[in-house]
Design goal:
The complex is a heterotrimer of chains A (199), B (344) and C (120). Chain A is an all-alpha fold. Chain A contains eight helices and no strands. Chain A has helices spanning 2-23, 27-47, 51-76, 87-108, 130-138, 143-164, 176-181, 184-187. The radius of gyration of chain A is 29 Å and the shape is elongated. Chain B folds into two domains: 1-65; 70-332, no CATH class. Chain B is 66% helix and 0% strand. Chain B contains twelve helices and no strands. Chain B has helices spanning 2-39, 55-65, 76-92, 111-133, 136-167, 172-177, 192-205, 217-220, 231-255, 267-272, 278-299, 305-332. The longest helix of chain B is centred in the first third of the chain and has 38 residues, at 2-39. Chain B is globular. The two termini of chain B are 38 Å apart. Chain C has 120 residues and is mainly alpha-helical. In chain C, 65% of the residues lie in helices and 0% in strands. Chain C contains four helices and no strands. The longest helix of chain C has 26 residues, at 60-85. At the A-B interface, helix 2 and helix 3 of A face helix 4, helix 5 and helix 12 of B.
Chain lengths: 199, 344, 120
């Protein structure tokens, strides 16, 4: 019973906040609502006993991706900009995309897989270890897509740097190896002074 | 009826964690002031109550009674929500901490991942606070905080990977039990570089000295919470110290054997100290790390920002990467005395 | 004891933590006096009036750090299950992670040599 309550709570949260992402005028608010949507969907995944995926969804999407979104949205100060200028203009295109996506979803999850009873996996005991099960297939059976993901990440690093990085401009760098290799006698030495007399 | 009793029981258990935690936070602030005072050859607070022991409560009352200023150009709701969003992850992460064998609220198999996730959420409150204040110093502080937390989180995650390799589980209880045997089996020894990396990035994650660029007084006044007064400031304060205690708790669980007795495996002493409950050892280990926090604050000058980023990216991350490779080979070849256990 | 039963306290804990923060905030609001004036409510800027909007565009380097963080965070997410099962994994699984890590170390060396990790 509690499980169902939590399911409806998270589902309502996910739908409501997803709607707010579209409705809200301020981009920062929209981004924050998207964060809540992610957290609610992570809750739903955990309800499906995919604990690793649920937690990683929050870790990666909320903890990393949305931080970047917020960075961008906050600093650009887009609050004053009119965002809905092209609404009518893009409406037909949006409707086409919407109907195509809806058709795909309906084709994929038609009555065979609707209803709460269908999405109800067998109840696992506390010893059930989602992570170990995932790990036992990800690196062997699915090694190829896994390494491909690594290559994609490498590409992302190179792309990010070449897009945003403009090189160091007259930077004053700290050379740590020089600092470490300095000896006391390089900086400080005693000289004997001849003319100094004791007063 | 049964479910309601069950829920009430859980709520009671949560309060049994949160209340001692808040009291620890209160006394940690006092301890910090006292310890730093003695390190500076001062006495520290000694007026309120016997030896100043009531000082934290006076502070709390003062903060609650102070006027809450909501800046005129701020985003009101986000400005008020930010401190709550900082505090909530700092408290909620405690749900999976095992205080002694079997004494844990939520014994989940992904315990370490949960803690890692919660610590990644704390950056939101800071970013929102800085942005909603609509003040330059707050904004700069929030930016610095976000970039810093984010950089050290990677090093911290890699340090966790080393522990996972050695323990073969993400369940915090299993990790502690995998260290049993004697004091030499605690992971601080085989994973020494990762232990240091974890601790340094833990200090940086909580934005404490010497990594407190976030609120560096001489540069950006008080950083992201410059506009906060009264209860809002109190919440940030509470969250910061709760996070410090959390980092200390995780450090003792992962590297110092959690609730395990340090005399385990030593013939005579083991029996002499057998009566001490595990919780006491755990608290003592946490206390050690908390003292280290204060000690660092009293000893080190503040880092410069480019030095912070350099340390995070160019020193800590390469160290962890190398040590992950070393440990994984040690595990794979069952190299004793640490990595030859069967695993879980 | 089902697996999900362990997650119930976590959900309640998060709820209580949010509630506690809100209660403290409201308590502070109710207990404190309120005497606002224009100078008090102005954003702090060393006593001057605020020069301009605080939300300025800033150094692109912060974006770069955030992007690199996403990539390395994903890498940790991939490393976690691998670390847990390493003991039972075949050498093929170890090798695939070696390749994955090798690619990312390559990226790391690239950003290092390119100077993307330098702050000035």
């Amino acid at each position: 019973m509690i499980q169902q309550f939590i399911f409806y709570l998270f589902s309502a949260m996910a739908i409501a906040t997803a709607a707010m992402v579209i409705i809200s005028k301020s981009p920062v608010r929209a981004a924050l609502f998207l964060v809540v949507t992610f957290i609610a969907s992570a809750g739903l995944w955990i309800l499906l006993q995919a604990e690793f995926l649920g937690l990683v969804l929050i870790l990666v999407y909320v903890g990393a991706v949305m931080t970047l979104f917020l960075f961008v949205v906050m600093m650009l100060d887009m609050d004053g900009i009119e965002l809905r200028s092209g609404f009518v203009q893009y409406l037909p295109f949006a409707l086409i995309v919407l109907s195509v996506m809806l058709a795909f979803i309906i084709l994929a999850v038609w009555h065979t897989s609707f209803g709460l009873g269908h999405a109800n996996p067998s109840k696992e005991t506390a010893a059930y270890n989602n992570i170990a099960l995932l790990g036992s297939v990800l690196y062997t059976q699915y090694a190829y897509p896994f390494v491909l993901a690594g290559a994609l990440l490498l590409l992302a690093i190179i792309a990010a740097i070449s897009l945003t990085f403009r090189g160091t401009r007259n930077a004053k760098k700290q050379r740590v190896e020089w600092q470490v290799s300095v000896r006391a006698q390089d900086r400080l030495y005693k000289t004997s002074m001849k003319n100094e007399k004791r007063l | 009826m049964d479910t309601i009793m069950n829920l009430l029981w859980i709520a009671l258990k949560i309060l049994a964690i949160v209340l001692p935690l808040t009291i620890s936070v209160a006394y940690l602030t006092l301890a910090e002031r006292k310890v730093i005072a003695y390190m500076h050859s001062r006495i520290g607070p000694n007026r309120v109550g016997f030896l100043g022991l009531l000082q934290p409560f006076a502070d709390v009352l003062k903060l609650l009674l102070k006027e809450m200023v909501i800046p005129s150009q701020s985003n009101r709701y986000l400005f008020l929500a930010a401190p709550v969003l900082v505090l909530a992850p700092a408290l909620a992460a405690w749900a999976v901490i095992p205080f002694s064998k079997g004494l844990v609220l939520a014994n989940i198999n992904a315990g370490l991942l949960y803690i890692f996730m919660m610590s990644s959420l704390s950056v939101y409150g800071v970013l929102i606070a800085g942005w909603a204040s609509n003040s330059k110093y707050a904004m700069l502080g929030a930016l610095r905080a976000a970039a810093q937390t984010v950089s050290y989180e990677i090093a911290m995650g890699f340090a966790f990977v080393g522990v996972l390799l050695a323990a073969g589980s993400m369940n915090l209880q299993t990790i502690v039990l995998a260290q049993s045997g004697n004091i030499l089996h605690w992971y601080f020894l085989p994973l020494l570089p990762l232990f240091f990396v974890y601790w340094i990035s833990g200090v940086a994650e909580t934005n404490r000295h010497p990594f407190d660029m976030v609120e560096g007084e001489s540069e950006i006044v008080a950083g992201f919470h410059v506009e906060y007064a009264g209860a809002g400031f109190a919440l940030f304060f509470l969250a910061e110290y709760a996070n410090m205690i959390l980092i200390s708790a995780v450090a003792s669980l992962l590297f110092l054997g959690g609730w395990l007795s340090p005399f385990e495996g030593i013939p005579l002493l083991e029996n002499v100290f057998a009566f001490v409950p595990g919780l006491v050892w755990f608290v003592l280990k946490m206390g050690f790390f908390l003292f280290l926090y204060i000690w660092l604050r009293a000893t080190f000058p503040r880092y410069r920002y480019d030095q912070v980023m350099r340390l995070g990216w160019k020193v800590l991350i390469p160290i962890t990467l190398i040590w992950i490779v070393v440990v994984s080979f040690a595990v794979k070849f069952n190299i004793g005395p640490w990595f030859n256990q069967a695993g879980v | 004891m089902y697996m999900l039963a362990n997650y119930l306290p976590i959900v309640i804990f998060i709820g209580i933590a949010l509630l506690l923060g809100a209660i403290l905030l409201v308590a502070g609001f109710v207990l404190s006096q309120k005497k606002p004036n224009a100078a008090k409510l102005a954003p702090y800027e060393c006593g001057f009036d605020a020069m301009e909007n605080a939300r300025l565009p800033f150094d692109v380097r912060f974006y770069l750090v955030a992007i690199l963080f996403i990539i390395f965070d994903l890498e940790t997410a991939f490393l976690f299950p691998w670390a847990v099962v390493l003991r039972h994994l075949s050498w093929f699984g170890v090798a695939s992670m070696g390749l994955f890590l090798g690619l990312l170390v390559l990226g790391f060396i690239y950003e290092w040599k390119k100077g993307a990790l330098e702050w000035e």
